[in-house]
Design goal:
Length: 585
C-alpha cells in the first residue's frame, strides 16, 4: 500500500530521467554498436551502393552529417511524441521510461542498424528483397505486402497529425513552407552550382531559424481538414523528385532545427533543475505508476501488457525505420562505416525525443479536460512542456511553445513524404518488371504515389483516429519483428559462426507482443466490444475494416515467421552459400 502510494504521488526531478537515459544510451553506443559494426563486417574502403549505382535520382552519395540529418528527420515522426505521452498518462512515467531506456539500445537501435547493414550488403535492396533471397519469392511478397500496408497507415496518421499541428500552431505552417523553399535553393547551391559546403550550411541554417520569426509574424491559419489534402499533395510531389533536389538538403537543414529543439530542451532540463531558472519546477506531475489497466480517469481501460509496447512504438523500436534504412538511407551512404552513427546512433536520437516527450507531459501534468486523450492531447502537451523547458534558458514560454511545435512538425513532414517514397519503392518491387499495361500504369511513380495518397485520405476522412493509431502502432511493431527476422535469416545464412541472439531475441519478443496486441485490439475491442456489444462511437463499417486489415496482417506475419524460422534451422544444418555477407554474384 505504501509503495503504491509512493509511486502514485511522489514527485521526481526530471533531471534523473534525462541523465539516466543519456548514460544508458551512451554505454550502448560506445560498446554495443561498436561490437555490432565489427560483427556485420562494415568496411570503410568497400564500395557502397550509392557509389556503385550512382544515378542522380535515388542512388546519390551523401556526406555523413547530411545523411544523418535526412535519416533522423525521416524516422523521428509523430509516433515518438504521441506514444510516450499517451503511455505516460495511461500507466505512469516509470513503465514508459524503462521501456524506452532499455528497449531502445538493445532492440530498436539494433533493428535499425542491422536493417541498414543488411541492405548495404545486398546492393541497397529492401528488406523484402533480402528475405526473398533466402526464403523465396513467396516470403518476399508476404513481407512486401505487409510493409506496403503499413506504409499507407504511416502516411495517413502522419498527414493527420501534421494537419492538426498546423491548425493549432499556424506559425509552424508558415515556417515550414519557408524552409522547404530554402531546401530547394540549398539543393541547387550544393549539387548544381557546386559551391562550398560549410559556408552554405551557415547561411542556410541561419535562414531556417529566421523563418521561425517570420512564421510568428505571419501565421497561415487554415483548418485541419484544409491542410490534410495540401500536405498529401506536397508529399506526393516531394516523393517523386530526385533526392538531391529536396529530400537531402531539406532534411539536412531541418536537422539543425531538430537538434536545437531536442538537444536544447534536454540541456534546459539539466540547467533548469540545477539553477532553478525554469518558469515552474521541473518535476514529475503525473504518477510513476497508475495501474495495470491504465489511468481510469481518462475513461479507458488498456492493459499494460501488451499495449504499453505498441503505444510507445517508435520511441523504442519501429518497423518503419527498417524501410527508411533499406529504402533511402542505404542508397545514399558514402561509406559503410557511416552506418554505425546513422543507423544505431540515429535511433538513440529518437529515444531522446521520446524521453523528452515523456518529460513534457510529466511536467505539465493532467487536467480534467484530458479525458479526450489521444493525439489531440499529446501535441499540446509536447509544445507546452517544451516551452517550459526552454524557459530555463531565458526563452519566453510564448516563443518556446511555438518553436517546439515547429520542431515537431519538422519531424512529421519529412517522415510523411519519405514514407510515400518508400511505398513507391515497395510497390515497384511487388509488381516487378511490368508485363501488362495495368502493371506498367500502377508502377508508374506518379500513379503509384497518387494512389497511396487517395487511400490514406480515405482512412483519415473516416474519422476513426483512435483505432487507426492503434492499428498503425501494432502493424509498425510487427513489421519491426519481421525486419529482425530478415536480419536473423541473413546472419544465419552468412555463417554458421554468427550468433543470432542480438536479432533473434528482440524478434521473438516483438512477435509475441504485437500479435497479442492485434488480437486484443481487433477481436476483443473492435469485434466483441464494438461490433457485437455496440460499445463504441465508431462506424460499424470502419470497425469491420479494421478487423479485416488486422487479420490480414496477423496471417501475413505468421506465415512469414514460419518460413523464416524454418530457413534459419536449415541454414544452421549446412554450410552457407554466401560467406561475404551479401548475395552471390
Amino acid at each position: 500500500m505504501y509503495i503504491h502510494g509512493f509511486l502514485s504521488h511522489s514527485m521526481v526531478a526530471l533531471l534523473w530521467l534525462v541523465v539516466g537515459v543519456l548514460i544508458i544510451f551512451s554505454v550502448g553506443y560506445l560498446s554495443y554498436s561498436k561490437y555490432l559494426a565489427g560483427f556485420v563486417g562494415l568496411d570503410e574502403d568497400a564500395e557502397t551502393p550509392a557509389h556503385k549505382y550512382e544515378d542522380g535520382q535515388e542512388y546519390v552519395p551523401a556526406k555523413k552529417p547530411v545523411l544523418l540529418g535526412h535519416h533522423y528527420s525521416s524516422i523521428a515522426g509523430g509516433a515518438p511524441i504521441v506514444g510516450p505521452i499517451t503511455a505516460g498518462l495511461l500507466w505512469g512515467w516509470l513503465p514508459a521510461v524503462l521501456w524506452i531506456a532499455i528497449g531502445n539500445p538493445l532492440m530498436g537501435a539494433v533493428h535499425d542498424f542491422v536493417s541498414l547493414s543488411a541492405s548495404l550488403k545486398h546492393e541497397g535492396r529492401s528488406i523484402g528483397y533480402i528475405i526473398g533471397e533466402y526464403v523465396g519469392d513467396e516470403g518476399k511478397n508476404l513481407l512486401l505486402w505487409f510493409a506496403f500496408l503499413t506504409i499507407i497507415l504511416v502516411v495517413a496518421v502522419f498527414a493527420f497529425v501534421v494537419g492538426l499541428v498546423f491548425q493549432k500552431y499556424p506559425s509552424a505552417a508558415t515556417a515550414s513552407i519557408l524552409y522547404i523553399g530554402l531546401a530547394l535553393l540549398f539543393g541547387v547551391y550544393l549539387y548544381q552550382l557546386d559551391l562550398p559546403f560549410v559556408p552554405g550550411t551557415v547561411v542556410f541554417v541561419a535562414l531556417v531559424f529566421v523563418s521561425v520569426f517570420v512564421g510568428m509574424r505571419f501565421p497561415i491559419q487554415l483548418s485541419q481538414q484544409t491542410w490534410i489534402p495540401i500536405i498529401l499533395l506536397y508529399s506526393l510531389i516531394a516523393s517523386v523528385l530526385p533526392v538531391w533536389t529536396l529530400l537531402q538538403p531539406r532534411d539536412y537543414l531541418s536537422s539543425f532545427l531538430l537538434y536545437a529543439g531536442v538537444g536544447g530542451a534536454l540541456i534546459a532540463v539539466i540547467v533548469g533543475t540545477i539553477f532553478a531558472t525554469s518558469s515552474q519546477p521541473l518535476v514529475t506531475n503525473i504518477p510513476a505508476f497508475t495501474s495495470f489497466g491504465g489511468n481510469q480517469t481518462l475513461g479507458t481501460f488498456s492493459p499494460l501488457f501488451p499495449m504499453l509496447f505498441v503505444t510507445i512504438a517508435c520511441g523504442t523500436i519501429s518497423g518503419f525505420h527498417s524501410l527508411v534504412s533499406s529504402g533511402t538511407t542505404s542508397k545514399q551512404l558514402n561509406k559503410e562505416t557511416d552506418a554505425r552513427m546513422i543507423g544505431y546512433g540515429g535511433m538513440l536520437g529518437e529515444g531522446l525525443l521520446a524521453t523528452l516527450s515523456l518529460c513534457a507531459v510529466a511536467v505539465v501534468g493532467v487536467t480534467a479536460s484530458d479525458a479526450a486523450g489521444g493525439v489531440g492531447l499529446a501535441l499540446p502537451k509536447f509544445a507546452q512542456g517544451g516551452g517550459i523547458f526552454l524557459s530555463s534558458l531565458g526563452i519566453p514560454v510564448s516563443f518556446g511553445a511555438p518553436f517546439m511545435a515547429l520542431v515537431m512538425v519538422s519531424f512529421l513532414l519529412t517522415s510523411t513524404d519519405t514514407a510515400l517514397r518508400l511505398g513507391r519503392y515497395l510497390f515497384e518491387e511487388i509488381v516487378g518488371t511490368p508485363e501488362t499495361q495495368v502493371q506498367e500504369a500502377t508502377s508508374n511513380r506518379y500513379v503509384n504515389s497518387f494512389g497511396q495518397c487517395v487511400v490514406a485520405y480515405v482512412l483519415i476522412a473516416s474519422g476513426t483516429w483512435t483505432p487507426l493509431w492503434q492499428l498503425f502502432g501494432s502493424a509498425n511493431q510487427l513489421l519491426a519483428a519481421l525486419a529482425l527476422l530478415t536480419g536473423t535469416v541473413w546472419l544465419a545464412n552468412w555463417s554458421e559462426k554468427k550468433q543470432l541472439l542480438s536479432t533473434g531475441v528482440p524478434m521473438a519478443l516483438m512477435s509475441v507482443v504485437t500479435v497479442c496486441a492485434l488480437v486484443y485490439l481487433e477481436y476483443y475491442q473492435n469485434l466483441y466490444q464494438g461490433l457485437i456489444l455496440g460499445n463504441t462511437q465508431s462506424a460499424a463499417w470502419s470497425l469491420a475494416l479494421q478487423v479485416v486489415i488486422g487479420t490480414i496482417l496477423i496471417v501475413l506475419a505468421l506465415l512469414l515467421l514460419r518460413k523464416g524460422v524454418a530457413n534459419v534451422r536449415e541454414a544452421r544444418g549446412k554450410q552457407p552459400a554466401a560467406t561475404d555477407g551479401g548475395v552471390e554474384e
